Amino acid sequence: MSMIHVQNLTFSYPSSFDPIFEDVSFHIDTDWKLGFIGRNGRGKTTFFNLLLGNYEYNGNITSSVEFNYFPYPVSDKSRFTYEIIEEICPEAEDWEFLREISYLDVDAEVMYRPFETLSNGEQTKVLLAALFLNEGQFLLVDEPTNHLDINGRKSVSNYLKRKKGFILISHDRCFLDGCVDHILSINKANIEVQSGNYSSWKLNFDRQQEHEEKTNERLQKDIGRLQQSSKRSANWSNQVEASKNGTTNSGSKLDKGFVGHKAAKMMKRAKNLESRQHKAIEEKSALLKNVEKTESLQLEPLAFKSKELVQLTDVSVMYNDEIVNTPTSFKVKEGDRVVLDGKNGSGKSSILHLILGEPLQHTGNLNVSSGLIISYVQQDTSHLKGKLSDFIEENQIDEPIFKSILRKMDFERIQFEKDISHYSGGQKKKLLIAKSLCEKAHLYIWDEPLNFIDVYSRMQIEELIKRFNPTMIFVEHDQAFREKVATQTITL
């Protein structure tokens, strides 16, 4: 067991005026299974780069372990998988690697296939197994679930539960609960480390915010009451002071000593009230700094002329005369929210592209109602770059509404001035979702919309969908999200 110490860490990008970290201090035990959470753009991947020594910073980071990063950059994916494994963990024996991938439900035959022929899920599992075989390293795992189906997420979660000595960035609540024993959270005002899984952290966080809200309400009342008392005391003191040279009602002169004593007493009381008021204001100012506000999002789905929008009957998509999925049949009626389920490579995205009108070879019958307006959120964000104003113009988006949605999804105004290529993965995905929310459509087709998106925004989108009931077909592997949103599951 050893410790990673972070002391007075301060960092900002040269092109940015706003600091990512400012005088941050905490420590981490290298035996922990640490879940790393925080809203998009708060600096999670940046912190990984600081640990890896990729950026210069102020402050100190001390550790006795070597850091390694997932996803591992594979330079030549045409090589056989075993060659890449030997590059990553040269000291490991073949039997050790075969043991590791068996825990992840991966067949041994992948060792003798070109790495590029593995599915995204298989590549994720193989790289994780290889990296964990390097003894004495502390692994920085950056969003491993983005290319994993539900079963893949379960097997990786179970695998990580067997390990120790890692920090895991993930926004999948169920996944985190299954494999971590500590949470490192980047909050609005500070960074905290807490024992437990995501659910226990969220419960404690909400309780703390509830306690601070009640304390804040009490202090606000106290401040108001003290302000009134202070005003009364000041008035009384002034009246007594003014009466020093006066007389009583009977015409006799007042005792100036008595009056002076009374004035001093009233003045002392006023000072005490003022001191208590300042103390209450200081206590109040220390509260509610980490409140995560999630304002309600808006959506205007269009009503369609008929109840049935899409119908598939025994549809299979084909590539180079090879069938991708077994024949599938389902209908989409107004108000339905259909989630396509299945392993990686089972044809979920292909079905979506077919419905979108792409000329894909297929069998069976597909009927998409004439005049149907579709809003689409694609899975890939790598094409996003350039100025936000250009993105708005190219997509003919209502700028005030679009930027209002982004603000509600935790975008700072300074983000509007940055090149989109500098956005985090979650911020890029929010850009596509905000664009879709600006579009009035009969049907919303979203392909893995929650990749990289923080937990608060996921819950925000859940509430939006439940409130406005849009007709949807989507692919998503976040189990908690699916359970709250989907009305029908189609398994491929």
From TrEMBL:
Polar residues bias (residue ranges): 226-252
Ranges in a coiled coil: 263-290
InterPro entries given in the database record: AAA+_ATPase (IPR003593), ABC_transporter-like_ATP-bd (IPR003439), ABC_transporter-like_CS (IPR017871), ABCF_ATPase (IPR051309), P-loop_NTPase (IPR027417)
Keyword ATP-binding attributed: yes
Gene3D superfamilies tied to this protein: P-loop containing nucleotide triphosphate hydrolases
Pfam families per the UniProt record, alphabetical: ABC_tran (PF00005)
Domain ABC transporter: 4-213, 310-492
Biased composition (Basic and acidic residues): 209-224
GO molecular function: ATP binding
Location of the region described as Disordered in the Swiss-Prot/TrEMBL record: 209-256
Record key words, sorted: ATP-binding, Coiled coil, Nucleotide-binding
Domain of life: Bacteria
Protein name: Lincosamide and streptogramin A transport system ATP-binding/permease protein
